[in-house]
Design goal:
This protein is of the alpha/beta class. It is built from twelve helices and seven strands. A five-stranded parallel sheet has the order 1-2-3-7-6, sandwiched between helices. Strands 4-5 form a two-stranded antiparallel sheet.
Length: 364
Amino acid sequence: MSQDIAVGTGSRTSSQSGLVGAHAERLSTLVTAQRATVDRSTGLELYRDMTLGRRFEDKCAEMYYRGKMFGFVHLYNGQEAVSTGVIGAMKRQHDWFCSTYRDHVHALSAGVPAREVMSELFGKETGCSKGRGGSMHLFSKEHHLLGGFAFIGEGIPVALGSAFTSRYKRDALGDSSSNAVTAAFFGDGTCNNGQFFECLNMAQLWKLPILFIVENNKWAIGMAHDRATSDPEIWRKASAFGMAGEEVDGMDVLAVRAAAQRAVERARAGEGPTVLECLTYRFRGHSLADPDELRAEEEKQFWAKRDPLKALERDLLEAKLVTSEELRAIEKEIDAEVQDCVDFALSAPEPDGSELTRYIWADD
């Protein structure tokens, strides 16, 4: 069981040339398609993290449709390889992570306990944001989660500030140990906004240690990506600023992990930022209130066949790193963990009304 998965240059491609052809073509001609090497321990860790993300989101959907969870809830199903691939290639509680309104799984990958994340979704005092933020505003200083941000592009300047802090501590304050890297996650719909371009410019100008992670799931709410931008290959925009840019199969956690490792290495070496475009797909509608009637069924089926969890399972089994029974056991453990966090959240106390203005201003 000590065999490793070797780095290769091939990425899984679709044989359905007539089905969503543009998507298949991009996936089959990736500029960077190398895949990470993992041992048994790492493979199991990746599978567990992705399974937790998937099962957690499925339970959120169940609670929402049962009328137990309220507000805006945007799920991450299908995109797990991006969160696990990037954050798993970084250092928890050392590096920093900044998310969007689709932030539950980023928080889990960063190490925020599932109980705290679920409690926040129920608006409870035991939530990671003390019940004040809800689904779209998960924060955890302890786990270096800079927050989930509801407005498009809002988190990118925050992440840029984090990367600037890391560089400033080293260069201006003489802290040679300051080498933290920041990952800013956002979607394809963000990449036509001003914050994106302004922050790319500043990051490259100062060679800041930041990864701009584009989770290109092809749709900005109800707008197809190819209809909204003059150049749909987002990673190429990095070249306008002279920075590194890569495109990767965002349904392949080993490909994402390898690309993230390269980007993190460049950032820690002082070589500056990277735009990493991950080609992925959300399996559910934009939010749980979205009937998801705009996307063609053939498009959904094309991406469903590229399920990142099933792909990783095939890799691990083919390399004889794990057995199917071990993976099923992990899934049972995760199901129990997710049910526990729901039970915990439902029984947790509501925020005290007398503390309505707490956390708005800094304590004396």
